Amino acid sequence: MAGKSGRTISATPNRSFLKTVLSWEGALVVIFIAVLVAGRIMSPSFTLDGVMFMMPQHLCQLFIVFPMAFVLIMGEIDISVGSIACLSATTACLAANAGLPLPLVIIICLATGVACGALNGFVLTKWPELPPMIVTLGTQIIFRGIAEVVIGAGSSLKYDSDNLSPFATYLGPVPIVFIVVIVVAALFMVLLSRTTFGRRLYAIGSNRIAAKYAGIGVNRMRFIVYALAGLMAALCALFLLTQIPAVKSDEFGKGFEMNVIAMCVFGGIATTGGKGNLFGAFIAGMTIVCLRIALGLVNVNDNVITIIIGVLLIVSVLISGISQILARRKLKNKT
Amino acid sequence: MKKILALVLVAVMAVAIFASCTQSGTGGGVEYALVTKAAGNAYNEKEAEGFKAAMDAQGITSYVIKHPEKATVDAQIQVINSLIAQGVKSIAIAANDANALSATLKSAKAKGIKILTLDSDVAVADRLTFCNQAGVQEVGQALIDAVYDIAGGEGDYAILSATSQATNQNAWIDAMKKIAAADSKYSKLNLVEVAYGDDEPQKSTDQTQALLTKYQNLKVICAPTTVGVAAAAKVLQDKKSSVKLTGLGLPSEMAAYIGDDADHSCPYMFLWNPIDLGKLAAYASIALVKGEIDGTAGGTFKAGETTYKLTTVEGTNASEIILGPPFKFDPSNIAEWKKVY
Predict the structure, then answer these.
(1) Measured between CB atoms, which of B18, B30, B77 is closest to A244?
(2) Helix H or strand E encompassing B190
(3) Buried b vs exposed e over B180-219: b needs ≥16 C-beta within 10 Å?
(4) ipTM, interface predicted TM-score of the complex
């Protein structure tokens, strides 16, 4: 029965087909398909080619959804990822403009991300009583501030090479970035649902003290997860540079943290920790991306698009909240 | 494994939905597009108004005006990508950044979409032509004529500029000097000093006061910068000085100082007319799509009654279209324009 609260680590996920459809992820799949069908009806440009053409810029954010899900499952939050993307893109630009070869540019970009994430992890594990929201708010300002010092306020740093263009190509109708997102999604899913690492994340999110006494290296886990968030933010930056080949310190990656958290929450991941899965987060992310694309194609005012997505989020959270309350009542009535 | 399998299934279903009807759309009939810097930008909204007016005047309904949600390249690229996917024929853009749009604009070009810019340009390789609101010669001419007119044909005048390295201001001041030197009409005008207020309100104020103290016979100050002109206007009006002011200023900032009587320091000033710029962009879009111009310098096209010519941007082989002389803001129209920008 404890499964209803979502706070157990069930070793044998035993779900019937009907249950799967009625679960939040099942509902998301239905919503996702509804968005696709609606988009197809609304706009003649909502074709495979059209959507795939617009996809890359939106998809970049999905890289951050997966590590953010890990952070949220631990019951924490990281709002510095957008700034990490900005700083990583800045170092990538500097490296490329200095004439360094592509592999080195990629390594420098990813290393910047890992370093930023590791700094978050270091501060948070060195002083575990500090709230992650405040610490990452601080680093959010610091990372963007460093980028601003390097680039200069108001100006933009151009990525002065086209050596990233292989990452912007298509395999048939499918953009490379889409394939990479799928691969990354699969890796993170395996990590979360098939390894002890994943089980430990749920354990920490469900009850940190219990997890600690059960012998889980809580701080080590937290450090790894924050560093992972930094790494993926840098990967996001790298792919975003293929779409936006210039970095402005006050723009690049701005607001990504909130978009990504929204995708996670929409995907059924509880911000209180211990609950949710990556499939939900992924489908939620894809749904928001496709909705944006569809509304953009029928020339809905951009601000209205933002409002529609906001409303969708609130409604979805409400629905899942109500279903939880109902489930709890049912449980009470039974006992 | 179950979840990954589900993931694959969903992906297959999604593809199937598209595959069921893959004949490429015609873009819902949209052919011409204008992309502004952002929603809520009053200046850009006036450009959009002009664009719409010109399209309506031509009886064209297949156009769309898109305001990105924020004034960022990210938001602008989203909008441009969606227009490319709709298969539009031309996109006129007021760019948020000169470099960042290049990848997007290259893919638009690859699909045969005519790209032009207005208001603020991108790298010249990424667009066919640029609707320039401020031709250097035209600005220089308007300013020197204003000085001539306000000074009454003769006397001392000073220029209050931005920084000594400001590209635009230096070009305009240079043009003023050249025009004044070339025509004997302006021979009785005497430029006493070019002062630099560095586009800082306080420094511009100090420089204005210094000019007033240094030159007792000063008749006119010309400030070809919005910061400088506003600072100077306040100094002159507060001191009830007999020295008059003209230049390039924002109507909203200058409304309180514009007037013909002794209580106001600025009889009239200039800036661009965004409505006309929007119209020019619309006519240029149509001409590009119809093939009347191809973006090379020397081409001509008609915008309503006026014929415009594509001129070469100095130092490049790219073209631009100059809107014409700057727009005059005087007591008769300032009340309306101060609400705009």
Answers:
(1) B77
(2) strand B189-196
(3) beeeeebeebbbebbbbbbbbeebbbebbbebbeebeebb
(4) 0.81
Nearest-angstrom CA–CA distance, B29 and A304: 22
Q: Which residues in chain A are closer than 8 Å to B3, comparing Cβ atoms?
A: 189, 193, 277-279
* Domain spanning B30-133+274-324, CATH architecture: 3-Layer(aba) Sandwich (3.40)
Q: pLDDT at position B23, please? A: 43
Structural domain boundaries in chain B: 30-133+274-324, 136-271
Report the residue of B44, B78, B83, B89 to disrupt the A interface, i.e. the one with the largest count of A CBs within 10 Å: B78
How confident is the model at residue A141, as a pLDDT?
96
Let me know if residue A149 belongs to a domain. Answer: yes
Residue of A nearest to B103 (CA): A243
Tell whether B87 lies on the interface with A, counting CB pairs under 8 A.
yes
CB contact under 8 A, A302 and B26: no
Q: What is the pTM of this model?
A: 0.79
* CA distance, residue A249 to nearest chain B CA (Å): 11
Query: Mind listing the pLDDT tens digit for each residue in A222-235?
Result: 999 999 999 999 99
Residue of A nearest to B106 (CA): A243
- What is the Cα Rg of chain B in Å? 24
Q: Which residues in chain A touch residue B18, judged by CB atoms under 8 angstroms apart?
A: 36, 40, 47-48, 51
* CATH number for position A286: 1.10.3470
- Is the CB of A33 less than 8 angstroms away from the CB of B17? yes
Type of residue at A76: E
- Residue-averaged pLDDT of chain A: 89
Q: What is the pLDDT of residue A309?
A: 87
CATH code that applies to domain B136-271: 3.40.50.2300
Which of A45, A55, A159 has the most B C-beta neighbours within 10 Å, making it the best mutation to test the interface with B? A45
User: Hey, is the C-beta of B335 within 8 angstroms of any chain A C-beta?
Assistant: no
Report the residue from A244, A293, A303 with minimal CB separation from B74: A244
Judge: A242–B103 Cβ closer than 8 Å, yes or no: yes
